[in-house]
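Dear colleagues,

As part of the handover before I leave the project, I'm documenting each prediction I ran so the next person doesn't have to rerun anything. This entry is a single chain, and its sequence is reproduced below.
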Amino acid sequence: LLTAISVERCVGVLWPFWCRSHRPKFLSAAVCSLLWALACVLAGLVYFVCDLGHSEHCWTVLGTLCFLNFCLFTPFMVLSNVIVFTKLRCSPWQQHPARLYRVIFLTVFFFLLFGIPLSIQIFLNFFVYLKLVFEICLLLASVNSSINPVIYVLVGSYRMSTFRGFVRVALQRVFEDR
């Protein structure tokens, strides 16, 4: 999904008029649905082939996941974000907020830092299995799954005092007695 969002943002920046007038209305929903379906199929394959069947085809399924993540989705995501960043940075006719640059940079940076190690580790498991390293990579992947909302909240807050007030109010709502 991060790749789809990045590519859509890139297309919107490169061809803004086409996106507003000619882009199919339900393209985003269709692409996201297809990606969710692909994720469900691949997760089901991992579950049935690796967890239930203990089959020799488990490494083939995991290798396919690694290939899709590391060789297909990651390059598209990184390339589209670099294009967006470069296009917005070099655009002389329009001022873009610094927050957008921070969100783009932090999203790509944390994905590369936390999301990619698991794909690399699964690939390396074909040659040598290190349980501790694998568990650390799983932890990093979990952090990657939850880091984007934190990035959006932190970058989106105008002042830290506003953010602290928001967190304080949210915590008071959670812990108040009703």
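The longest helix spans residues 58-90. The chain has one domain: 34-90+98-177.

All the best with the project,
I.
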